[in-house]
UniProtKB/TrEMBL annotation:
Belongs to the PDCD4 family. It is found in: Cytoplasm. The keyword Nucleus applies. Keywords: Cytoplasm, Nucleus, Repeat, Translation regulation. Residues 31-152, 193-311 form the MI domain. It comes from the Eukaryota. InterPro entries: ARM-type_fold, Initiation_fac_eIF4g_MI, PDCD4. This is Programmed cell death protein 4. One of its GO terms (biological process) is regulation of translation. Gene3D superfamilies: 1.25.40.180. PANTHER family: PROGRAMMED CELL DEATH 4, PROGRAMMED CELL DEATH PROTEIN 4. GO terms for cellular component: cytoplasm.
C-alpha cells in the first residue's frame, strides 16, 4: 500500500504538470519517447517484463518515468482487453521495481490533462482511463486518497473531472475488488492471481508440504522478477506461525538458483519497511526479523551493498 503523504507530491499541482518538461532538452525527450515506444511494443509481443525493466533502466532517465506511464496507458487504451491487462499488470510491477509514487501520479495527471485530445482518436478514452485509475487503486499502485486529490484539481464538468468521478465510483463501490481484478477480462498472470498462488504454495509448505515441491511451484510461476513477494510473504508467515521452517525453503530456493540474491534482498527490505505495522499483530516481530537478518547474512542470501546494511 502506498503511504506517502499526498500533500507533499508536487505533481498534483496542475501548473507543475503542465510545465514539467518545458525546460528539458526537446531532442532528448523525443529520443526517449521513440525508445520507449519500441520497448513497450516489444513487451506487448514478448510478455518479457525482465527485459523491459532492463531496457528502461539502461535509458538512465528516471525523470521521464511519467512519460513512460502516459505512453503505456495510451497505447493500451487503443488495444484489446488482453493488452490493457498486460499494461495494468506491468504498472503494478514497475511501481514496486523502479517507479515512485510521484512518477505514477504525475503520469496519470498527464493522461487526465490530455484526455480531450486522446478522445479524438479513442472516443471512449475517458471510460478506459477511469478503469485504469480504479484498477491502479485496486493494485495498490495508487492510494484511494490520491483519487480524491486528483479530483480536487479538475472541475466536475470537465472531461478529466468526469473521468476521476467515474474512477472513484468504480474503486469505492461494493465488491469493487473482484470486479476490478477482472475489469479487462482477467488473465492467468494478473498480479492478484500470482499473489494468491504464492500464498497457497507457502501455506501448503508451512502445513507440512514437501520442500522440493514448494520450490518447483515457485519456479513454475515463471516470474523470477516477482520472487521478492515469496520472500516477503514467507518471512511474515514464519513470524506469524512462530516457525523457522520457511527458512529451509528460502535456503533451498537460494541453493537451486530459483530465488536470486537480488530478490532475496528486496524481500527482506520490503519486510523491514512494514516492521512497525507487523509489531502491532506480532509483538516480537522486530526481534524475530533481526534474527532472520543475521541468518540471511550468514548464508549469503542478501547483498549488503544494496541498501541492506540498514535493514
Amino acid at each position: 500500500m502506498l503511504t506517502e503523504e499526498p500533500t507533499q507530491i508536487p505533481s498534483l499541482n496542475p501548473k507543475t504538470t503542465d510545465n514539467i518538461y518545458e525546460n528539458h532538452d526537446e531532442e532528448k525527450l523525443r529520443g526517449y519517447k521513440n525508445s520507449i515506444s519500441v520497448i513497450i511494443n516489444e513487451y506487448l509481443s514478448s510478455h518479457d517484463i525482465e527485459n523491459l525493466i532492463t531496457n528502461v533502466e539502461k535509458l538512465h532517465t528516471p525523470e521521464y518515468n511519467p512519460v513512460f506511464i502516459k505512453r503505456l496507458v495510451t497505447v493500451a487504451m487503443d488495444r484489446k482487453n488482453k493488452i490493457r491487462e498486460m499494461a495494468s499488470f506491468l504498472l503494478s510491477i514497475l511501481t514496486m521495481k523502479i517507479f515512485t509514487t510521484e512518477d505514477v501520479i504525475t503520469g496519470f495527471t498527464m493522461l487526465l490533462d490530455s484526455i480531450d485530445d486522446t478522445a479524438l482518436d479513442i472516443p471512449d478514452a475517458s471510460d478506459k482511463l477511469a478503469l485504469f485509475l480504479a484498477r491502479a487503486v485496486r493494485d495498490d499502485v495508487l492510494a484511494p486518497v490520491h483519487l480524491n486529490l486528483l479530483n480536487e484539481k479538475h472541475s466536475e464538468g470537465s472531461t478529466a473531472g468526469k473521468t476521476i468521478t467515474l474512477a472513484r465510483n468504480l474503486a469505492f463501490s461494493p465488491h469493487a475488488g473482484e470486479r476490478l481484478e477482472r475489469c479487462w477480462g482477467g488473465s492467468s498472470d494478473c498480479l492478484q492471481d500470482v499473489k494468491e498462488k504464492i500464498m497457497k504454495l507457502l501455506e501448503e509448505y508451512q502445513s507440512g508440504g514437501d520442500l522440493d515441491e514448494a520450490c518447483r511451484c515457485i519456479r513454475d510461476i515463471g516470474m523470477p522478477f516477482f520472487n521478492h513477494e515469496v520472500v516477503k510473504k514467507g518471512l511474515i508467515m514464519a513470524m506469524e506461525k512462530k516457525s523457522d521452517r520457511m527458512l529451509d525453503l528460502l535456503q533451498e530456493c537460494y541453493d537451486e538458483g530459483v530465488i536470486s540474491v537480488t530478490q532475496l534482498t528486496e524481500g527482506f527490505i520490503r519486510v523491514r519497511d512494514v516492521i512497525d505495522d507487523l509489531v502491532l499483530d506480532i509483538p516480537k516481530a522486530a526481534e524475530i526479523f533481526d534474527r532472520y537478518i543475521e541468518h540471511a547474512k550468514k548464508h549469503n542470501w542478501i547483498n549488503e551493498e544494496d541498501n541492506t546494511s540498514t535493514i
